[in-house]
């Protein structure tokens, strides 16, 4: 599913969150969206998910007549719902559930719980989880819908470093294996550089640049967009390493 975003604008009353943004997300590719707080990243994802009113066009080009199935993981993962982890994950399949939960739905939910190492928490209530565990459950819910368009709003912000890497490895593998179109908002430039195929940089509701990690992540962009002086190096396997030095 290719997503073409043309001249997209989002306003909340007097606040302009997005102003005339053009961007394309391709299948089988992880598109990371980075940018300072308040730059419009969540508004972009919410507009693509159909959750906020917008102007402009969002065109979904599904190949082979396949329908659009969106897996959306919100930034706010607080939950007062009296649901168990398994119930919350099954809710990700709401569009497919009939009056009875089929064994195929339970099998899919179980497989996702296994993939994210959550099986032992299946019977726990959401309110009894740690922040990081709850974040993994919301990711599981998004994956349980068997999406072809995966929209993840800061999916690793509450996770320890091992879980950050595990989640990004899973997201990248599923994106490539199942040809998902994945748009993921990230704050960690190193994670974005390592796991994204393309990176879009936003600032004040506008797209500043987009391209491959190597083309986009460089000191001048980091200084201009984030107001940070940074040093660049690379890992033995060639991934970029950004070391933020000081706010300028
Ligand atoms: N529901 C809302 N009502 C009014 N203004 C809003 C609303 N949601 C977001 N905004 C404003 O829109 C702008 C963009 O917000 P958005 O959440 O899209 O940014 P973001 O880049 O995702 O930020 P962060 O990195 O802090 O999550 C901000 O100025 C924000 O204050």
UniProtKB/TrEMBL annotation:
Protein's organism: Bosea vaviloviae
Family stated for the protein in its record: Belongs to the ABC transporter superfamily.
Sequence ranges assigned to domain ABC transporter in this UniProt record: 3-229
Matches recorded under Pfam families: ABC_tran
GO molecular function, one term: ATP binding
Keywords, in A-Z order: ATP-binding, Nucleotide-binding, Transport
Protein name, UniProt field: ABC transporter
InterPro entries: AAA+_ATPase, ABC_transporter-like_ATP-bd, ABC_transporter-like_CS, P-loop_NTPase
Superkingdom, natural source: Bacteria
């Amino acid at each position: 599913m290719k997503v073409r975003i043309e001249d997209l604008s989002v306003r909340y009353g007097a606040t302009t969150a997005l102003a005339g943004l053009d961007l394309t997300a391709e299948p089988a590719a992880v598109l990371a969206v980075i940018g300072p707080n308040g730059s419009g990243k969540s508004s972009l994802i919410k507009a693509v998910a159909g959750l906020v009113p917008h102007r402009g066009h969002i065109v979904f080009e599904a190949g082979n007549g396949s329908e659009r199935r969106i897996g959306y993981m919100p930034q706010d993962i607080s939950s007062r719902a009296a649901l168990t982890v398994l119930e919350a994950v099954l809710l990700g399949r709401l569009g497919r559930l009939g009056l009875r939960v089929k064994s195929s739905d339970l099998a899919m939910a179980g497989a996702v719980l296994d993939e994210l190492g959550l099986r032992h928490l299946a019977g726990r209530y959401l309110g009894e989880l740690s922040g990081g565990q709850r974040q993994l459950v919301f990711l599981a819910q998004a994956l349980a819908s068997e999406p072809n368009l995966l929209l993840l709003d800061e999916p690793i912000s509450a996770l320890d470093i091992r879980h950050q890497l595990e989640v990004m490895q899973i997201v990248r593998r599923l994106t490539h294996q199942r040809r998902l179109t994945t748009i993921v908002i990230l704050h960690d430039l190193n994670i974005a550089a390592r796991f994204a195929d393309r990176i879009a940089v936003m600032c004040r509701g506008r797209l500043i640049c987009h391209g491959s990690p190597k083309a986009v992540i460089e000191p001048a962009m980091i200084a201009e967009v984030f107001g940070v002086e940074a040093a660049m190096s690379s890992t033995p396997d060639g991934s970029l390493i950004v070391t933020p030095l000081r706010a300028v």
